[in-house]
Structures are given as structure tokens and as C-alpha cells.
Amino acid sequence: MAASRSVAKPETVRRAEALPIFVWQGTDKRGVKMKGEVPARNANLVRAELRRQGITPTVVKPKPKPLFGGAGRAITPRDIAFFSRQIATMMKSGVPIVTSMEILAGGQKNPRMKSLINTIRADIESGSSLYEALSKHPVQFDELYRNLVRAGESAGVLETVLDTIATYKENIETLKGKIKKAMFYPAMVVAVAILVSSILLIWVVPQFEEVFKGFDADLPAFTKMIIAMSDFMISWWWLMLLGTVGLVVAFIMLKKRSPAFAHFLDRTVLKVPVIGQIMHNAAIARFSRTLAVTFKAGVPLVEALDSVSGATGNMVYTEAVRRIRDDVAVGYQLNMAMKQTNLFPHMVVQMAAIGEEAGALDAMLFKVAEYYEQEVNNAVDALASLIEPLIMVFLGVLVGGMVIGMYLPIFKLAGAV
């Protein structure tokens, strides 16, 4: 009988999720106005339940669906990190995992995240392990996440592993945010500069051109060049727009579908001054922290390296980690395998060697990760300070040059008078 009840619970959860939501208003026995919402088959059942609780319903109607965003926003890695932290905290406090899932689902504002948590909870209630339940959602929970959970369940330290995963995800997302900040700011400024230049060329320059026609004088070469650019933009703006969109789409598709192009792109980025060093440090930090977390969770080193290979964020380092995995699998020490790639600094290799000799590889790798994450933070802050004056010069030359080019004929005419 117990088995039949455990199997029925997920179906009950799914049925409850499928019921429509009704919003209600009413007054209690003291005349106090109350309101709320509840899932039910129809409005009559809602009214009956409210009367049973001593509430006189005045309004009972289906909850209106929002015009936009009814399905909820996409689930982000930060959502998964927050989910991991909450589950770990509640399990450490002695709350059973199913109850923890129920509490988390009830507090979710994102319908997609709520549905995901309820599905995982239903699978666990039906007898699946957490690893098996997460394996049905590989998009949200990658191989590394699932392997860590499996190792934690096998060792009986799931709450500790979940706490480690939460810390890991939070640190990795913070690191990603720093890298995006380093790339986003200059890209946005360049985009704004192009937009402002296009507006000037399409709408402002033609106005000046009409004025210049009344001068009946030869225009400066610089002004003629700007007018020619304006004429080209007005005539062929649609072709330039289509070409730009086509290039962006082709670039994204090629990067996703061509490993050779992705490898070339990542290798090129690593050679860019300043930016390249930030990407090197970020890849080393992610490699070190990910390997430390997996190794600490009890995952064998070769299997850990297999999971880590996709977490570095750079194809060059991904291939290097795969070579390290192959070397370790045939008997090489980790530090020797790392040295052969010629990608890891001497300090990182030596820290790995000390960790292997002392039996504290995870602790040493955590220290390496912290050091390189701080290096990335410092480099991003320094880059922002360096880029700001360069951006001001770039905007001044671009926009100011066009303005000067338009006023040159007026200056020339004033000098002749």
C-alpha cells in the first residue's frame, strides 16, 4: 500500500498543477475583507470551500493570464545557482529534500522555474534519486552538475556537495559577469557611435548639402568625402543593414556549428592585447575551481577532468584539458600533464605538484582559482579605466570630424568675406 501511495503522489502533483487558478474576494464572520487565489476544477468548488472555512465569497473568477511573459522568462545559470544554495541551506537545517522542493516551488515568481522544481520534486517522490531527476533536464543541469550530485548521493554527503556546487556556481557566474562587463562596455560605445554617425549622415548632412548648393563655390575635399558617404548611406542603407544582420547571423551560426572556426576564434581572442590575458586568467580560474570542486566531491581525477573540459569557456583550453585527461589516464601526474600543454603558468603547475604530493590537490586548486579570479577582477577594473579616455577620443574624432567637415565651407566662406 505504501508503494502505491508513493507512486500516486506525482500524479496528484501534476493534476494540481493542471488545475486552473481562481482569484476570490470575500468577508469573514467579523466582516473583514479577504482575498486570495486557489487552484480548483471550477468556481462552485471554490465557493463551497470558502463557505466551509467561514468566508462569504463575493467574487470568484478565473485568474486572468498576462498578455506578455505568461510562460515566464528563461531559466538562467544564476537561477540554478540560487536554487542550489537554497536547497543546500534547507537540507543542512534538516528539512527533507521533497519538502525543500515544495517550499522553493511555492516561492518562485518565474513559472518556468516553478514548473522545473515541481517536476523534479515529483520524480523524487516517485522513487528517483536527485541525480536521476536532474538528468531529465540536461539544459539546466549540465554533466558537471549531475556528476557532482551523483558523487554526493553515493557518499551520503549530498547537502555538503550541494553547498559546494552553490558556491561554485556563484563564483563562476560572478567571473562570467566580469568578463561580459569587459566586453560589453566598448561594444556598446562602438554601437552608439555607429548609430549617431548614421543619423548624422542620413538626416543632418543632406540639410547642409542643400545650403552648400547655394554657395556656388568649390567645397573642401573632406566635406565632399562626407557628402559622398551620406549619399551612399541614403541610397544603400538597406543593403548595409541586411549585410550587417547577415554577417552577425552567419558569425553566430558558424561559431555554433564549426568547431574549427570556434577554435580559431578562441585562439585569436587569447592573442589580443590586454583582453587576451583576461581570457587566459579566466580560463585558468574556471579550470582550477571546477577541478577542485569535482575532486573534493569524490569524483575520480580522470572522470573529473572529463567533466572539467567543457567548463573552461575556451576551445583552446578545452582541448588542452582533454589532452591532460588522456595523459593522466595512462599514468602521468597531473602537474606533468599540465606542463606539456604550454598553457598553464609555472606557478599553477607547481601548485598542482605540491597539492599532489601533499594529498591536498583540491585545496591548492582552490587557492589557484581565488588568485586568478582576483587577477581577472583587477584586470577588468584596469581595462575600464584605460578604455574610458580612448572611447572619448574615438567618439570625438568620429562625430567631431563629421561636424568640422560640415562647417569647413562656412569657415572658408567667412574667411573670403
From TrEMBL:
Gene Ontology CC terms: plasma membrane
Lipid bilayer topology: Multi-pass membrane protein
GO biological process, one term: protein secretion by the type II secretion system
Entry-linked InterPro entries: GspF/PilC, T2SS_GspF/T4SS_PilC_CS, T2SS_GspF_dom, T2SS_GspF_sf
Main location: membrane
Domain Type II secretion system protein GspF, chain residue ranges per copy: 83-206, 287-409
Gene3D superfamilies: Type II secretion system (T2SS), domain F
Keywords for the protein's UniProt record, in alphabetical order: Cell inner membrane, Cell membrane, Membrane, Transmembrane, Transmembrane helix, Transport
Transmembrane residue ranges: 184-205, 234-254, 390-410
Subcellular localization, as worded in the UniProt entry: Cell inner membrane
Family: Belongs to the GSP F family.
UniProt name for this protein: Type II secretion system protein F
Organism: Vulcaniibacterium thermophilum
Biological classification of the source: Bacteria, Pseudomonadati, Pseudomonadota, Gammaproteobacteria, Lysobacterales
Encoding gene (name): pilC
